[in-house]
Amino acid sequence: MTNRKGTLGRLLRTLFHFYPVLMPLTIVCILFSSVVSALPSTFMERIIRLIEQSYPSGDWGAVSSQILTLVAIMGTLYLISLISVFIWTRLMAIITQGLLKKLRCQMFDGMQDLPIRYFDTHNHGDIMSYYTNDIDTLRQLVSNSMPQLLSSGVLVLSVLFIMLSYSVWLTLVVVLGVCCMLMVTRKVGGGSAKYFRRQQQSLGKTEGFVEELMNGQKVVKVFCHEEATKHDFDRLNEALFSDSRTANTYANTLMPILNNMGNVLYAVVAMVGGLLLLSGVPNLSLSGSVLSISIVVPFLNMTKQFCGNIGQVSQQVNSVVMGMAGAQRIFELMDQEPESDEGTITLVNVQEQQDGSLVECGHRTNVWAWRRPNPDGTVDYIRLAGDVRFEHVDFGYNPDKVVLHDVSLYAEPGQKVAFVGATGAGKTTVTNLINRFYDIQKGRILYDGLDVTQIKKADLRRSLGVVLQDTNLFTGTVMENIRYGNLDACDEECIAAAELAGAHDFITRLPDGYNTMLTSNGANLSQGQRQLLAIARAAVADPPVMIMDEATSSIDTRTEAIVQQGMDALMCNRTVFVIAHRLSTVKNSDSIMVLEHGRIIERGSHDKLIADKGKYYQLYTGAFELE
Amino acid sequence: MVKTLAKSIREYKRASVLTPVFVSLEVVMECVIPFIIARLVGQIQAGCELSVIVRYGGLLILMAGLALIFGWAAGTTCASASTGLAKNLRKDMFYAIQDYSFSNIDKFSTSSLVTRLTTDVTNVQMAYMMIIRGAIRCPLMLVFAFAMSFYMAGTMSFIFLFTIPVLGIGLALIVSRVMPLFRKVFKKYDRINESIQENVQAMRVVKSYVREDYEKQKFEAAAADVCADFTRAEKILALNSPLMQFCIYAASTLIMGVGSYVIITTRGTAIQVGQLSALLTYSMQILMSLMMLSMVFVMITLSFESAHRIVEVLNEKSSITSPEQGAVTEVKDGSIDFDGVNFRYSEHADRMALANVDLHIRSGETIGILGGTGSSKSSLIQLIPRLYDVTEGAVRVGGVDVRDYDLETLRNQVAVVLQKNVLFSGTIKENLRWGNPNATDEELVEACKLAQADDFIRLFPDQYDTYIEQGGTNVSGGQKQRLCIARALLKKPKILILDDSTSAVDTKTDALIRKSFREFLPETTKIIVAQRVSSVEDADRILIMEGGQIVAVGNHQQLLEHCEIYQEVYHSQNKGGEQDD
Lengths: 627, 581
Hints:
The complex is a heterodimer of chains A (627) and B (581).
Chain A: H1 2-18, H2 22-38, H3 40-54, H4 60-112, H5 116-121, H6 124-166, H7 168-215, H8 217-222, H9 226-279, H10 293-334, E1 346-352, E2 358-360, E3 368-373, E4 379-383, E5 388-395, E6 404-411, E7 416-421, H11 427-434, E8 442-447, E9 450-451, H12 457-462, E10 464-467, E11 476-477, H13 478-483, H14 491-501, H15 504-508, E12 517-518, H16 527-541, E13 545-549, H17 557-571, E14 575-579, H18 583-586, E15 591-596, E16 599-604, H19 606-612, H20 615-620
Parallel strand pairs in A: 7-14, 7-15, 10-13, 13-14
Antiparallel strand pairs in A: 1-2, 1-3, 3-4, 5-6, 5-8, 8-9, 11-12, 15-16
Helix pairs in contact in A: 1-10, 2-4, 2-6, 3-4, 3-10, 4-6, 6-7, 6-10, 7-9, 7-10, 9-10, 14-16
Chain B: H1 2-6, H2 13-45, H3 50-98, H4 102-107, H5 110-153, H6 159-201, H7 203-208, H8 212-237, H9 240-265, H10 273-315, E1 336-343, E2 354-361, E3 366-371, H11 377-382, E4 392-397, E5 400-401, H12 407-413, E6 414-417, E7 426-427, H13 428-432, H14 441-450, H15 454-459, E8 467-468, H16 477-489, E9 495-499, H17 507-520, E10 525-529, H18 533-536, E11 541-546, E12 549-554, H19 556-562, H20 564-573
Parallel strand pairs in B: 3-10, 3-11, 6-9, 9-10
Antiparallel strand pairs in B: 1-2, 1-4, 4-5, 7-8, 11-12
Helix pairs in contact in B: 2-3, 2-5, 2-10, 3-5, 5-10, 6-8, 6-9, 6-10, 9-10, 14-16, 19-20
């Protein structure tokens, strides 16, 4: 509960922070318009009193000026209220959308700075739902429910006040009736909420089933399993139907019940009013006025207004609860701890002077150096060579479950180092540590002799090119996707990179060549073609060190042989880490590490490992499967 | 479109018809109530007996009770009708999809089918609810309320003739201007969400290339664009409430002004104070129903796209069905003949996936197929169980054109282990029984032994009752492939096709599987599509495919001597050639 209060407070603070002028203005307009809409009853009462006085005589002239004045005042108030409604609804449109935009951007910005761990440990569907479901419920809350609640609340209070000023007795009747209505709302509304939750669950189950089956539809066909599948689906579909029917029945009947309870209340108030009028029970009221027909009639209208607004409020309850939950989740995402970076060493382009010293320069020279600021204010330049060393590294994704045990390895500049091992042996983990997607628990990782934790993460990563097994392409043209590796690259450089990666051939055969639009992660390309693009993307970045994690797994061996030349060119003069399932890919590495259960169990060149006749030999001769 | 959707109402026709009936009755009650109230007020004003008040009050409560019952009944039938329609739509779509052929399936992506079966159906359900309830209620309310006020107050009711058109035209203007805007902005909104998803999935790439700031800028621009469009649309939509209020205020001011004049000048004979407030109620009802009507209209328009997408699924006719008469229900043997086969995936494809294929396979033969990505290996074998139909020529199984077979007969005799293997959530036993629902436990074990799956299944704590997670995530790729092979073996087919189905299995186990096929399934025709030379090496004949054609046929030795492609592949996989298991 306190949590929810905190959320509301924070949401309001955020709103006022974003719109320090518009928000108060909006609130004033809402308050004004809703107070005004409570007033007509008082004018009505006066007009009716005047009518009562003079209708037996039929003399319009005697009261016309008074009545017309009242009508005119009423009209003026209406006009002002109309203007304020006009203003606040427009302002609300601006505020809501502006708030959503700002929140979206804050969420997105915050998300970019979150560590990879966050994305590895959170379901992507859940992350998406912050941007879709939660933003939608928040929109509902801010644009609809909050103004509605405010205006209905004020209206209910004003009407209550006016009612009390007319007659306490009648007001009591109304309040009692409204209490009954609220009880019914709780009951029916509660039932509705319960079944809507169940409906959501059934829907989720059905969706899961449908998704699984649609994915395997071809298997269903091959096994002539259509009838059995239909039968299973029917069962889930019936359950979903039953839940959603009940949920909707509750929801559909709430309004008629409330409306007609309002009508009953109306009748009761009329009867009690009539009773009071006839029986001459002394009226009790704030204004001290005597109960008369001129009070009963507007009172009846107020009863209607009162009930109507109670109905409005009760309809908002659900969306307020949901909106609050949405806001809470959004704030949770924004409160996630961003990736920390305590590094001070940066990556710069340098030029080598004749005396061998390095001088920093602004343009791209393809000679890189680490710029290390010293405590005394001086700066060292250390040439980037690509020497990577692991010294007794221990690591676990969870501190209590160690994945890598005492791993030591070195890659000298220009060497190709390969990792081989079963799924879960820790191959990918090694690469996750070099670029500091995760931090090690024990030991050291040195890059050109510098501890990687002292290097700024952005600069560290800029020096490493990574090609991953699951290729991710972005919506945009082929050219834009290659350029992602280096935003400053011109078209020619991108094409050269594609040629190097062996992707140029198939790209030119695409309908629009390099300008072909890719959508949904390059769904119109084969897995192998996507991998070639990813390699081209890495090639255009031209990083000193490359990590290839199953980068050619979906390219058939013959094509791989064809692109091998390009790959060799790409790897030449670079330190390269290769992870591959296919041993033909790693065979020509300078050094091969065989990982098992997070330990390096064998290391050496292909020939050495074959000669040793150990695990690698067994793998190579096909005695074990690698998965 | 409406016709196709209406077919799915079926058993909910009664509820669908009853809803408007109940709604009408409810509306009548709601319109009568203010009338009675006016009378009641009149009586009170005239200083009547208490019994009269009680009588009128009782009548009023009775009316309200009736209105409640009708309203409740309408709500119930409406819920049945709309959720029933939704249920039938889901069912009809799902059934239709089950009857789809492969080429039908290719047209829709999995996620789009899931959306159609869930979100789109929900949208149509909502729209249907609005239609059978609101679309009747609103016009009816409009007419009744107007009629009642005319009956009660005569000419004064013409005040409504001023407010109704103002609101009606105003709403129409707003809706017509706002709808295209919203449709546009919703598309943009979808796109921005897609790009977020893309970003989340590609986070490793984003971070590897240090593109966080670039992504932020890109997102900021897209978000600002969506925000601007949304604000523009919402601003127009925001005119709704002042417009509505204007009409209500104008009506009540006029009613009060004109009403008091009429009452006084006619000395209360034309109308009375009680009717004044009834008129106010009617004016509210009329304007509210106009507002509702515009909402109904918006809902229907918004659900239009969903309805369209559903109809697309329902109207998609399966391109492959069993012959209606004289379907052959027995497959004689496992021989396969391709006679002058040309094949393309769709009429619009400019390239033949298979061209001029002539191929004759004897029953019991083992055939290996090798070829690079895109060489149409899978296309070739998918024609045998008639997963696709040839464009030209004919494919014969057991001497009979596959198009003359009963589909179930053919597919039960031609077992394919697809390249894209899928296991379903359920136990291993349940998954295996897809091959043969009546298989005994012994038969399951036997099939698994042949597929070299028995050993690892025995190592699971629950053995054959081990639960396979959705997508088979709790078994390794090699294990999954072996289970899929076992599942196909349970059909006891005359022809067994493995489409790259042992790629994740180690070469040794792969060899064992082939050995057991040789020993225990000598009668069965075996077709093995593979990337690995070792998988097809010992086949009777090996086909080399390239660009949709069979470019070479022969056994291992022959091909190694004469076929350049085969040599290339062989050497790329056995670099150095020093090892051979």
